[in-house]
Amino acid sequence: MSRDLHRPFALDSVSSELAEHWDLPDIGDDSNEPEVNAVNRQRPVEPEPEETEEAPQPLTLAEIEAIQEEARQEGFDQGKADGHQQGLEQGRLKGLEEGHQQGFEQGLEQGLAEGKVRIDAKVAQWQSLLAELVAPLKAVDDQIEHELVELSVQLAKAVIACEVKTQPEPLLVALRQGMDALPSKGQQVVIETNAEDLELIQQSFGEQELTRRDWQLQLEPSLSRGSLRLVTSRSQVEMDLATRMETVLQGFLARPRDPVSEPPYPEFSPEPVSQEANAPESASAEVVPDTPASTDTADAESKPEA
């Protein structure tokens, strides 16, 4: 037993296979690992001595003023920076808004000006086209107007001629007007007329009245119905029916009349719309009653007798 204790240690083949290499432990200072003693027990940690805090010294007036000044300056700088940033943002927004408004107004004004030029060009073009359309219509209106006037004149003459054949008033009115047109009164008057009117005058006045007025009836076949010729020793007066009708119709056509009701032409047309489109109605309505009682023939021709 004692021999074994003093015999040197040697590894057999089995132990050498099981043996592992062992590195030396790090003996450096590692403050993070707890210190242990020889028996691998942690040494008790000695408490560190507590640091005694010194009581703060009271601030002096100068230090207080310095702190206040520093705080004021810091607040001023911070407010200035914030105000500058806010002012830049507000100025940018306001400038953007004003620029947008100004640009909008300028664009609107420019657009209106350019639009007006284009509109004026289109209006001129349409006016030219309308003028080309209106010109043929105006020519047709003028032609229709002329034809209506001619028709109304012929209609009026036909109505007057029929009135003369059926009523004695037109002839008697012409006789009275012719007597008034004679330059001297109280002398013998020879009344020349056609057979129908001669008989009509005899029936209207009678022989006794004709003798009292010193009127002498004389047949003149060349005179038309409604026409008279008054002859005295010094003058004669022609009371031709065609001349009287022409005088009345010319006076009717020459006088102004109210505008007719018709669709207006475009405003650019320089020529006024004709006002004689209603000539047939007016001629038939006015010429007939004016014939027996018209005073326009009072200025009948008066020729001195040779």
TrEMBL record:
It is found in: Cytoplasm. Keywords: Bacterial flagellum biogenesis, Bacterial flagellum protein export, Cell projection, Cilium, Cytoplasm, Flagellum, Protein transport, Transport. Its main location: cytoplasm. Coiled coil: none annotated. Pfam families: FliH. GO terms for molecular function: cytoskeletal motor activity. The keyword Protein transport applies. Residues 21-59, 253-306 are annotated as: Disordered. One of its GO terms (biological process) is protein transport. Residues 122-248 form the Flagellar assembly protein FliH/Type III secretion system HrpE domain. GO terms for cellular component: bacterial-type flagellum; cytosol. Needed for flagellar regrowth and assembly. Belongs to the FliH family. PANTHER family: FLAGELLAR ASSEMBLY PROTEIN FLIH, YOP PROTEINS TRANSLOCATION PROTEIN L. This is Flagellar assembly protein FliH. It comes from Ferrimonas aestuarii.
